[in-house]
């Protein structure tokens, strides 16, 4: 948790004057962007102004909106993300420093959120004449493919998880500041070759998350811009009460009681289990734990033993001090809840809002905890609204699978609704433009249609034609497919598919009487009247046509 004064906490509960300072350097200048057009907002920035060798560019009132958020879970890494709307075009690869402050006793007290890095150029927003910029803390450097940027393992050497983690951080260009001397699992020699050599899609961020589970800890980028481990601190150092909470969008729901068991699951089978099954934490698809759980699991359980946490959503007027994995007390409906900061979303513009929340993950394929509260919602969901491009995007991450729903609008081409998911279910009576309908039983009704491929049916009607197991027929003719019937103890087969009418009876009779010439063998006319396909037109074929058209039973 970030250090703030008692005056800062008191200021949170009253009408606030807020400022944000963003600083970055380019080839020519050191740039400062501040929220408001006021010289008093340079209280903290003055120290930097006198020491910088480059020329200083100051943009008063250049920040329109600033958002800082993160989304993580138990025994994972956290990457903080920064969204900006400013008057500055900030290029790709820029290092930013972000501070947000409150006016306390006449001066601004700032909370330093550290360094962020842009991964693409700013985007110009024509309607507001501003630029939107997205940046991430140094954890973003781990989002590279591990197999394409392989580590060099010394032959014959076995590495500890701490050494393995150091190698990864060095590969990704991130300095470390770990406190793992007393972490038993960190110092066990385990790794003699790459455990992810067969996983071509794994990133080093995935591997860092797996190591966090193996060590029973969490990883963040600290204020010194170094990777460090972050333990769950069950000591309450901040209380969020009704003065900070908003009136709406606030609830505390399902509780995950004190963890007393851990299960290792590889996606198809349970590989190991320790503890009791009252409140189980699941480690899933972890390549290291899959082969080393017998050496690691007891210590991880000792780290999580008794840890309790809730699903919750708290919409506040701003807290500022929380960091990923901080524990804090929230007073809601006259009850104190000890909560943990897994998801946080801070917005600063003309005012301040900060939403913190958490929802349990669900695993349908193994026996574990489930959330059944009617207040459940997607904590992993992210809603993006791009006013300039007329776009709304909803993305929800569920156990590594991405669901994406997009609503795009274009002045010339109209709107577009796009859904991408592994599985799409539409439940209930469904209509499209009133002309295509599917009811709850799967019955479909449509106006006009064009089909390609195979259509199967054993019942129904098409216009005046009826369908049964033998084929399609009407009062005047019959379309058959390998039709057969038995007469006088003998079975006759059509062998072909044709439509026959009353006129075919008359023509076949004339052929047999010699009134008209016999069609040549192999011609369509011959095959049409050789109903049973025996190579000749004879009275049996006439009998079949009369039966087909319903003239005889």
Kindly describe this structure.
- This protein has 553 residues and is an alpha+beta fold.
- Helix 4 crosses helix 5 and helix 6 packs antiparallel against helix 8.
- The chain starts with 5 loop residues before the first helix and ends in a 5-residue tail after the last helix.
- For the report, how would you describe the main beta sheet? 13 strands, mixed
Helix vs. strand class: alpha+beta
Determine the fraction of residues in helical runs and give it as a percent range.
Answer: 10-25%
Cα radius of gyration in angstroms: 36 Å
Helical element count? 8
Low-confidence segments, given as residue ranges, are 37-54, 361-390, 476-496
The number of distinct β-strands equals 37
The amount of beta strand, in percent, is 35-45%
Give the rounded overall mean pLDDT: 77
Concise account of the structure shown:
It contains eight helices and 37 strands. The strands form nine sheets. Strands 1, 2, 3, 4, 5, 6, 7, 8, 9, 15, 19, 22 and 23 form a 13-stranded mixed β-sheet that branches. A five-stranded antiparallel β-sheet has the order 31-32-33-34-37. The chain has a four-stranded antiparallel β-sheet with strand order 24-25-26-27, with no helix packed on it.
């Amino acid at each position: 948790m970030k250090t703030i004064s008692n005056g800062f906490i008191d200021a949170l509960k009253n009408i606030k004057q807020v400022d944000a300072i963003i600083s970055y350097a380019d080839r020519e200048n050191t740039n400062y962007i501040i929220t408001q057009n006021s010289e008093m907002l340079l209280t903290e920035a003055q120290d930097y102004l006198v020491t910088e060798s480059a020329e200083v560019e100051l943009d008063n009132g250049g920040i329109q909106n600033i958002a800082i958020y993160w989304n993580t879970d138990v025994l994972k890494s956290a990457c903080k993300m920064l969204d900006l709307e400013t008057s500055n075009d900030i290029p790709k690869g820029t290092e930013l420093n972000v501070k947000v402050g409150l006016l306390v006793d006449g001066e601004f007290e700032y909370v330093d959120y550290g360094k962020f890095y842009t991964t693409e150029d700013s985007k110009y927003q024509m309607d507001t004449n501003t630029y939107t910029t997205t940046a991430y803390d140094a954890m973003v450097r781990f989002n590279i493919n591990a197999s394409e940027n392989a580590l060099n393992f010394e032959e014959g050497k076995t590495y500890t998880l701490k050494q393995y983690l150091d190698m990864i951080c060095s590969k990704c260009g991130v300095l470390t500041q770990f406190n793992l001397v007393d972490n038993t699992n960190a110092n066990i020699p385990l790794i003699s070759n790459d455990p992810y050599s067969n996983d071509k899609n794994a990133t080093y961020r995935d591997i860092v998350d797996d190591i966090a589970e193996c060590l029973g800890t969490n990883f963040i980028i600290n204020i010194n811009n170094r990777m460090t481990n972050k333990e769950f601190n069950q000591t309450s150092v901040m209380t969020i009460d009704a003065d900070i909470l908003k009136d709406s969008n606030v609830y505390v729901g399902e509780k995950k009681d004190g963890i007393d068991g851990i299960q290792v699951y590889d996606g198809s089978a349970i590989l190991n289990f320790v503890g009791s099954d009252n409140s189980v934490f699941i480690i899933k698809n972890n390549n290291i734990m899959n082969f080393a759980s017998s050496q690691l699991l007891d210590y991880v359980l000792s780290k999580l033993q008794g840890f309790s946490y809730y699903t919750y959503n708290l919409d506040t007027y701003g807290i500022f001090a929380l960091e990923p994995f901080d524990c804090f007390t929230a007073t809601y409906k006259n009850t104190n809840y000890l909560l943990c900061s897994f998801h946080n979303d801070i917005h600063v513009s003309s005012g301040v809002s900060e939403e913190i929340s958490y929802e349990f993950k669900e695993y349908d394929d193994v026996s574990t905890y489930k959330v059944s509260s009617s207040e459940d919602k997607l904590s992993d969901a992210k809603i993006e609204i791009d006013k300039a491009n007329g776009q709304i995007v909803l993305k929800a991450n569920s156990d590594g699978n991405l669901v994406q729903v997009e609503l795009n609008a274009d002045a010339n081409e109209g709107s577009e609704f796009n859904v991408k998911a592994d599985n799409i279910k539409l439940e209930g009576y469904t209509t499209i433009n009133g002309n295509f309908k599917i009811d709850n039983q799967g019955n479909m009704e449509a106006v006009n249609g064009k089909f390609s491929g195979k259509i199967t049916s054993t019942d129904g009607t098409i216009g005046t034609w009826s369908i049964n197991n033998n084929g399609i027929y009407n009062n005047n003719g019959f379309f058959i497919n390998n039709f057969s019937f038995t007469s006088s103890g003998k079975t006759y087969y059509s062998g072909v598919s044709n439509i026959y009418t009353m006129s075919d009876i008359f023509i076949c009779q004339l052929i047999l009487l010699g009134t008209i010439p016999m069609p040549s063998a192999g011609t369509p006319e011959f095959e049409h009247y050789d109903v049973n396909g025996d190579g000749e037109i004879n009275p049996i074929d006439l009998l079949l046509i009369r039966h087909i058209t319903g003239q005889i039973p």
